[in-house]
Amino acid sequence: MFIPPLAPVYRHKGSTLAHDCAAATSRLAAAPDGFARRRRATPRAPLRMRHKHHGHREHTVLEVRAPSKTYPILFYEKTCMNDVAAFAPFIKGRAVLIVTNDTVATFYLERLRHTLDNCPGVDSVEVFVMPDGEEYKNMRTLNAILDMCAQARLDRQCALVALGGGVVGDVTGFAASVYLRGVPFIQVPTTLLAMVDSAVGGKTAVNHPMGKNLIGTFYQPEAVIADMSTLNTLDDRQLSAGIAEVIKYGLIRDATFLEWCEANVPRLMARDPAALRYAAEQSCRYKADVVAADERENGLRAILNLGHTFGHAIEAGTGYGSWLHGEAVATGMAMAAEMSRRLGHLTEADVRRVEAVLTEANLPVRPPPSMTLETFLAYMASDKKVVRGKIRLVLLERLGQAVVTADYDRQVLVDTIEYYRKLYDALPRDYERRLAHLRLPTEGERDAAVAREEASSE
Amino acid sequence: MFIPPLAPVYRHKGSTLAHDCAAATSRLAAAPDGFARRRRATPRAPLRMRHKHHGHREHTVLEVRAPSKTYPILFYEKTCMNDVAAFAPFIKGRAVLIVTNDTVATFYLERLRHTLDNCPGVDSVEVFVMPDGEEYKNMRTLNAILDMCAQARLDRQCALVALGGGVVGDVTGFAASVYLRGVPFIQVPTTLLAMVDSAVGGKTAVNHPMGKNLIGTFYQPEAVIADMSTLNTLDDRQLSAGIAEVIKYGLIRDATFLEWCEANVPRLMARDPAALRYAAEQSCRYKADVVAADERENGLRAILNLGHTFGHAIEAGTGYGSWLHGEAVATGMAMAAEMSRRLGHLTEADVRRVEAVLTEANLPVRPPPSMTLETFLAYMASDKKVVRGKIRLVLLERLGQAVVTADYDRQVLVDTIEYYRKLYDALPRDYERRLAHLRLPTEGERDAAVAREEASSE
Q1: Which among A33, A67, A311, B348 is most buried, taking Cβ atoms within 10 Å?
Q2: Where is the 3-dehydroquinate synthase C-terminal domain (chains A, B) (predicted)?
Q3: In Å, how far are A190, A228, A247, A282 from A250, measured between CA atoms?
Q4: What is A9-234's CATH number, 3.40.50.720, 3.40.50.300, 1.10.10.10, 3.40.50.1970?
Q5: What number of other Cβ atoms are within 10 A of residue A141's Cβ?
Q6: What is the predicted pLDDT for the residue at A368?
Q7: Which stretch of DSSP H or E encloses residue A96?
Q8: Are strands B223-227 and B69-76 parallel, antiparallel or unpaired?
Q9: Which tens digit of pLDDT belongs to each residue from B409-424?
Q10: Which residues of B touch A (CB under 8 A)?
């Protein structure tokens, strides 16, 4: 079991004031070591601080230095839902609106509502509870949240608090970015996927029937407050979906971290707190680096979408809410690896490694049979990365190194999708129902499929 | 008739290339005189250039240097709707979507569609025609535009073109800011109000039943292309509504310009091209100054809302579309002037001057009888400038100098609104139907109202 050391570490001691966390953050921003520059050519790893306050719970802070805003991600290993000191520094006004879903509400809503109600200066805490599921991440839910903001007469000093996973965070962030042309909001992610990906970096969105996340904004939160203990109430399927995004960072940025994932998926699945916190912090560090260099996805940031163009097509093509986002991304990453192999970048063994680590995390690596070539191509054609009709894809030059390109033979894309179609005969009959997480094709199945493919292309 | 000279003027001669306009703009941005700095403490007047190209029509250019983007406003005195060279520099992709309304479409849509179709590289021009009227500036129209973008599979290299007045520009800009998290858009204002105010500065919005412009973004266009000849097809009422915003700049920024307005309202009403162009250019210059200093309305920019808090209440309270925005703002400015008088800033004569110049432009200076005190206060309470329950108002310290304040005796606000209620008895019976543009109260009516008010407050 290999856990690389975290560095650089900055230890901050002594004060008991609740808002020291925010104060320390701003001191950090003004530090003379050059970190305070808002843009730099080659992003450095954001500085990490470890707080050991007597006045509130131990937590670590990672800073995101996006060009439009610098803000902290706070990781609490023990729950902070009762801790006024964790939230108060980021609440500036009198009115708070918590947005959550009915699953998360059961566990955390009352505690968080009570905590926010006790923040200094707060005199009203409204609550918006949406149904749980990707299928509710749409303009209708956005409108309902905005109606509530308007009816509660929230002013620009309010705070919207997103308590939940990626769906809640994305739609709440979008609402915050357009209500009164922008009000403050705080991410309180309760899924691993949200902690390592969607809550960080300021992408907000809702889905459109024509495609995933087609409508949204770039809008950074005031803070991301990650209560790692909430992962104990996450169901296994959601946990696996989050691990998909963790593995993604290894694939696109760091082969050493991929090795760590390969060794530690069982610990993550068993919810080992140290492993989860390391995975979350490391993932956020990669993401913060990329966002600092390219907030609005003019270039580099697109690599974070490894597997997403295939994955979004699966999500949209199967109807949002059937596959989890992380599951679709896992399959998309396997498909991107397979396509990278066909373009000569990866070896067969690399592809098997990708499939193995995902399968170990109980993630699907095959699209469902309902996804025909036509369905894939139609949804991929409305991807946001499409330019002048060319579908830009994130592919792997090698494990640990991604590349964004529209410069590939389109036939290879078609062949890749068709390859998975031909695997269907070898798949269990109830694959679609089971989402096919559960096994890799056998050597024989794979060879047979390759043989069928070669026969048909002659 | 007094027209102050325009300065500084930069003359650019010689080239016939269509895109020289854009090239000149970027040269200007790189000029060594310090204009290229993106932020400065005290904004300078944006530099103005006069082009005399052989290859395309004469126009003037004013640059808006917002912190998030620098872009030109191009004023064409003769129509540019047929002129590919006017639009081509700002169209980067293959697909264009024109958004317009059914009134404007009658006059300009086919010509502009044909022109855009002939821009190099463009291979599809879609059209979205909305009904004319403020009541359609809502989330429903926004959704319909976004549906069309998605169904046409527009990519991030597309261009949305807003052909129309403030409603079309605001909702198109909003759509452009959220589709694929932001695509380019071009403002082609066809009303005086849009040319001098709404198309410039990057505020986008839709209305909410709870209040005007409650939902939107800050998002700058690629360019504002003002074809001044379109003002010839504008109806008189719309023209007057635009003049209200022109007069506003005099009231908040420049008493000399207010004098110019007082002398030249008849020329503006008669659509004298030189007067209209001067008014538009001067207004845009004031606005560009303010936007350069405070793009996201953290401070100074709020002065542009003189009359808007009262005016938005009238628009929302009477149902959007009954009063034009400029009419409501005119009445709101008269009310703000009256309230400023009650706070000791303006004299009775100042208030009469404000009312006189607005009335000269055929604008209403009295709210309709349906607007009760309760209605005013309810809608004003959901204004975006409300902070911690206090309604911040733009008032006049003197003619030519505005101030934003929440530090006033609330009773004075109540008294101001009540004062107008008491004037109703002296108003013509069909005031509401006629929008009461047509006359000031007589001396006797005014004195009687003041007497009634004083009697009731004893």
Answers
A1: A311
A2: 242-386
A3: 22, 21, 5, 10
A4: 3.40.50.1970
A5: 23
A6: 87
A7: strand A95-101
A8: parallel
A9: 999 999 999 998 888 7
A10: 93-94, 139, 143, 146-147, 150-151, 153, 155-157, 174, 177-182, 203, 205, 208-211, 214-218, 296-297, 381-382, 384, 386-389
